[in-house]
């Protein structure tokens, strides 16, 4: 049986055995899991190896690229600014970013950026992968671009663009980059080991993700929104192997952390704004998450999703509770928070599966954690 390191409270043994089973089966190579209850850790475990060659064990402080789980950090920054009265989700984006009004986007509101309904799920103009490290270019192209569908009418997963869109609004309000603001206002006060833009000094702790097979777009037409979104630049699981990717601020996709750091930060949501004696949001500020913005088949993901202010909400596809929210990352990472039980569950791994929408590994961890809470 796989050697699981870390700690868990009585009743949560099933979480450790679930991770061990996944490592034993080879569906995981290296991974970490954290569960917080009422702002405190009740599970903090890790196991496996940092690479496919199994050359070194996953450690307590191992970091990896969590892909779109990074978006939850971006949402939290926006929620904090809104809670402070510096950002209005129902205001036009151009109030904060005047250039954004170009190409008929005068009426696009900040809430549309938060909920993937702005019609800007990708770039129209060609963008090479390394272009994602050029903040001004990425944001100026989006500001000049026409929406691909009528904003506010449907969600279309803004897989990479969402971080630039929200991040530029944050930059215009605060005068600093979202990665810096997040470090100063979120990660710092909580003592959380998470980065949007990884310093080179932390590279030695990184487990590089193990990419999945490339996404097959053969059945889709080049004009399809999903293809346009995910192929310019191509969504490549090996991108985090490049130093330029790790150094850049790509607030929808390149956050580096582990289950402990992600769960610590997002336990703020489960605790209605507070965790471990640190308050980042008011309860009212947290409640904005559950203001439904979209509910229907996503134009990029091709499946029904219900979006609140940033986070995914409970739906028929994801029945997680009326005051629960979640999101996950390309390849499988997952974070879920529930305010009724004050429970936060996170799974972070290095071996990626093909899907953009998670897989059974994270779902099994969530089930084991919920079961554990009932037995604790």
Topology overview:
Layout: E1 4-8, H1 13-25, E2 30-37, E3 40-48, E4 64-65, H2 71-83, H3 110-114, H4 135-144, H5 161-174, H6 178-190, E5 195-196, H7 225-230, H8 243-247, E6 255-257, H9 259-270, E7 274-275, E8 278-279, H10 283-287, E9 294-297, E10 304-307, E11 312-313, E12 324-328, E13 334-338, E14 343-349, H11 360-375
Antiparallel strand pairs: 1-3, 2-3, 2-14, 4-6, 5-6, 7-8, 9-10, 11-12, 12-13, 13-14
Question: Explain this structure to me?
Answer:
- With 376 residues, the protein is α+β, with helices and mostly antiparallel strands.
- The protein contains eleven helices and 14 strands.
- A hairpin with a 5-residue loop joins β12 and β13.
Quickly list its features.
alpha+beta; three-stranded antiparallel sheet; single chain; 30% helix; 14 strands; 376 residues; seven-stranded antiparallel sheet; globular
H/E element order? EHEEEHHHHHEHHEHEEHEEEEEEH
Mass-distribution shape = globular
The neighbouring-strand order within the major sheet is: 1-3-2-14-13-12-11
Distance between the termini: 24 Å
Oligomer: single chain
pLDDT average, as an integer? 96
Unreliable residue runs: none
Helix content: 25-40%
Based on CA atoms alone, the radius of gyration comes out at 19 Å
So how many helices? 11
Structural class: alpha+beta
Strands, total number: 14
Largest sheet: 7 strands, antiparallel
Beta-strand percentage range = 15-25%
Task: Put the structure in a nutshell.
The protein has helices at residues 13-25, 71-83, 110-114, 135-144, 161-174, 178-190, 225-230, 243-247, 259-270, 283-287, 360-375, and strands at 4-8, 30-37, 40-48, 64-65, 195-196, 255-257, 274-275, 278-279, 294-297, 304-307, 312-313, 324-328, 334-338, 343-349. The protein is of the alpha+beta class and 376 residues long. A hairpin with a 6-residue loop joins β9 (294-297) and β10.
């Amino acid at each position: 049986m796989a050697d699981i390191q870390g700690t868990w409270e009585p009743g949560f043994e099933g979480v450790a055995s679930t991770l061990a089973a996944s490592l034993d089966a080879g569906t995981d190579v290296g991974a970490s899991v954290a569960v917080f209850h009422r702002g405190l850790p009740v599970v903090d475990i890790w196991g496996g190896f940092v690479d496919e060659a199994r050359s070194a064990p996953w450690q307590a402080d191992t970091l990896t690229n969590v892909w779109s789980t990074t978006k939850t950090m971006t949402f939290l920054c926006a929620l904090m600014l809104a809670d402070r009265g510096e950002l209005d989700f129902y205001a036009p984006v151009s109030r904060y970013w005047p250039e954004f009004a170009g190409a008929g986007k005068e009426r696009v509101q900040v809430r549309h950026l938060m909920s993937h309904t702005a019609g800007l799920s990708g770039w129209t103009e060609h963008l090479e992968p390394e272009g994602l490290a050029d903040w001004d270019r990425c944001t100026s192209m989006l500001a000049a671009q026409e929406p691909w569908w009528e904003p506010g009418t449907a969600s279309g997963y803004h897989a990479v663009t969402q971080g630039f869109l929200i991040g530029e609004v944050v930059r215009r309000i605060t005068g600093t980059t979202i990665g810096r603001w997040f470090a100063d206002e979120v990660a710092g006060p909580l003592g959380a080991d998470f980065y949007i833009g990884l310093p080179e000094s932390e590279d030695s702790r990184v487990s590089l993700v193990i990419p999945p097979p490339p996404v097959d777009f053969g059945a889709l037409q080049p004009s399809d929104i999903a293809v346009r979104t995910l192929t310019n630049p191509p969504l490549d699981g090996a991108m985090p192997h490049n130093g330029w990717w790790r150094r850049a601020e790509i607030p929808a996709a390149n956050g580096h952390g582990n289950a402990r750091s992600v769960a610590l930060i997002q336990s703020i949501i489960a605790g209605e704004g507070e965790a471990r004696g640190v308050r980042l949001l008011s309860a009212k500020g947290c409640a904005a998450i559950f203001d439904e913005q979209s509910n229907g088949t996503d134009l990029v993901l091709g499946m029904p999703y219900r979006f609140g202010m940033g986070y995914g909400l409970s739906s028929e596809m994801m029945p997680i509770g009326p005051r629960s929210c979640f999101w996950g990352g390309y390849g499988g990472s997952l974070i879920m928070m529930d305010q009724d039980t004050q429970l936060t569950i996170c799974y972070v791994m290095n071996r990626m599966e093909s899907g953009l929408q998670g897989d059974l590994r994270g779902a099994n961890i969530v089930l084991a954690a919920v079961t554990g809470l009932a037995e604790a």
